[in-house]
Amino acid sequence: MNINFIKTIFNGILFYSLVQMFSVVFAAETFTLCDPGAEKVPDYEKYGVFHNKGTREYYYEVKDEDGLSKAVGEGVYPNSLAIYKDPEYQRYKKQGLLEGSHWDFVNVDDNQASFYKWALAEEEPGVAQYYTAMAMEKAGLYEQAVKAYYACIVHFPNSIGWTYFQTPWCIGKVALDKILYITRNHPELGIKLMGADVLVEGGFDNNPYNDVVVVDPGKLTSCPPEKVAPAKTDVSGINIVERKGKYPTEIVKYENGHWQFLVNGKPYIMKGVSYFPVTIGQSPDEGNLADWMKQDTNGNGRPDAPYDAWVDKNFNNTQDADEPSVGDFALFKDVGANTLRLYHHATNKELLRDLYNTYGVRIIMGDFLGMYCTGSGASWEEGTDYTNEQQRNNMLNLVKEMVNEYKDEPYILMWVLGNENNYGGTFGHVGGSGNAGKYPDAYYSFVNEVAKWIHSVDPIHPVAMCNGDTLYLDIINRYCPDVDVFGLNSYRGAYGFEHTIWADIKNTFDRPVIITEYGCPMFIEGKPVEFQQEKQAEYFKGNWEGMVYNSCGYGVGNSLGGIMFEWVDGWWKSGQPPRFSSWMHEVKGNWIGPFAGNWSYEEWFGITGQGDGTKSPFMRQLRKSYYVYKELWKE
Questions:
Q1: What is the pLDDT of residues 15-39, one digit of tens each?
Q2: Can you tell me the distance from the alpha carbon of 5 to that of 270, in angstroms, rounded to the nearest whole number?
Q3: How many CB atoms neighbour CB 500 within 10 A?
Q4: Which uninterrupted H or E stretch holds 366?
Q5: Distance, CA of 42 to CA of 233 (rounded, Å)
Q6: Angle at which helices 142-155 and 125-138 pack, to 10 degrees?
């Protein structure tokens, strides 16, 4: 949940968020390649030798450069000379359409210009190959894009790119996820990547010089379209080797290493919603924020948004006769949600009991654990100090109050500690975020202390932590043995949950995983609303399918699902100077990120909107993402 500008800053830095790293496929302005290559799936073993696959010493030795160039085609290493023979390249160059830095061609609408510029860029070769592939992907040239991304893994898996904030990113890892995303979403290509993996030892900080890359390029193969998506393994006959929590909320690990959440003995994947229906005009920054669990502005004796929200079907910002009040809780059930994340405690038990009994939605209840200074007693200017014994006691006592009050409620699914606290102090800034990033040992040892106490009084419900992506994952492994579930807020693009994030966690901190936040803003500057909605929906769909295809029985097998961010737009979140009014829906980008419009618009993440704002907090305009979830989450 974006409480203030701190998340804007830190997400922009840590979530690999610059345009130079991630870009979601835009409207395809396609073109024709002069030389698409002789082989749809190049056979690299014909043209060279793979050495030391699956080790730190991996490399590919090219033996027949001419043969490989002809096989892979234009724009794929080592074939760069074909560009000069391309008549369209000559035309672009003659007309002056390729002038300027190659970085100016990352997110242009002219994909052909981007392709030419990057294919010939004087840049680190892995970086240049990645953006060449991306230009072809954006143009809908998926077959050639797959070959180009695969060339990144084969030839340049150790390549490091740098964001604007000088944080590193690994070309090989992102290229691997891109290939899996493209081939899964375009089975008509009949291409599948088998056995590939790129792991970075020491890669959970911002220092690339201590990283060691372990590479197995696997093999691109041809296969029938129906065989591209992974098949599910039946785990019912496999032995259980580890348990966390107890019946009715139990997480089990099977002998094959896969994790599964069992609720009342049945498999449960979290189809989760982040919900904070703030009335337009209210803001924590302005000190007028009402409690949505109790807010009753129409005086009918029940909370507004949960029970009285209505759907503006014709988008006319008026409640017509055929648009009755149904409430968000009923819409949760309609869309197929089964889990609600509460970031910090609750104030209305009866409301949550009804959410569970009437609508079938369970709660993962959290405590900020000092994030935004909540519960620590620290001042905003200093931020929570995780080395301060008094502040630690303050926070632990607050957790004790929460657990003791709610542990016997039937709707509780698990506890969640923190909310990306590890970003605090990571980049020198503290403020309300605290110093968890500056002193990660102190912070994570405290997380484990709290988790251990919870287990002592509540052995039934698992305990999760909420981290900012995978930063400090190796330190977490060292200090958090009593944490049952690794939760992370992560914004890596539509393709970001294909494989590498799950494998990193599996190999470093072997726990089941919840994506505690993921999402995409709808707004894209200069694009029609229909296009904006399409791109947001595409992002959400890619994220969810990545979670499913790494849940028990698939892929890495450690996904328990996720909590999409978020249900409804919050018009109060931008918090950037100059501060616009909380009565306005801001369209100024907050940070460059892995989204279709390249920018994060903090006030536009909802799968439902509030229209022109005149009927807040009641009116809901359902976006395409809502209907995509309704299809994805159906039983």
A1: 233 333 333 333 458 999 999 999 9
A2: 29
A3: 24
A4: strand 362-367
A5: 30
A6: 160
> What is the average pLDDT across 69-90?
94
523 pLDDT higher than 50: yes
DSSP state of 67: H
Alpha-carbon distance values, 7 to 14, 15, 157, 168, 207 (Å): 10, 11, 31, 20, 22
Identity at 412, one-letter amino acid code: I
- Spell out where 70-150 has E strands: none
DSSP state of 581: P
**Confidence (pLDDT) at 21:** 36
The span from the CA of 26 to the CA of 421, in Å, is 33
What type of residue is 355? L
The dihedral region occupied by 557, where left means phi > 0, alpha psi between -120 and 50, and beta the remainder, is left
162-177 exposure pattern, b = at least 16 Cβ within 10 A, e = fewer? ebeeebbbbbbbbbbb
Instruction: Report d(CA 325, CA 348) in Å as an integer.
Output: 21
- Separation CA 556–CA 315 (nearest Å): 42
Global pTM reads 0.92
Element (H, E) at 50: strand 48-51
Which residues, at least 6 apart from 557, have a Cβ–Cβ distance to it below 8 Å?
Answer: 256, 257, 258, 259, 550, 551
Residue 433: pLDDT band (50, 70, 90) is confident
pLDDT over 60 at 3, yes or no: no
pLDDT at residue 210, as a whole number: 86
Q: What CA–CA distance (Å, rounded) separates 306 from 188?
A: 43
Sketch the domain layout of the chain as residue ranges: 14-227, 268-632
Summarised one tens digit per residue, pLDDT across range 148-196 is 999 999 999 999 887 645 667 899 999 999 999 999 999 999 999 999 9
Q: What is the pLDDT of residue 163?
A: 61
Tell me the sheet residues that pair with 61: 49
**Count of alpha carbons within 13 angstroms of residue 4, beta-carbon side:** 13
Element (H, E) at 191: strand 191-194
CATH of domain 268-632: 3.20.20.80
Question: What are residue 412's phi and psi, to 5 degrees?
Answer: -70, 130
d(CA 433, CA 437): 9
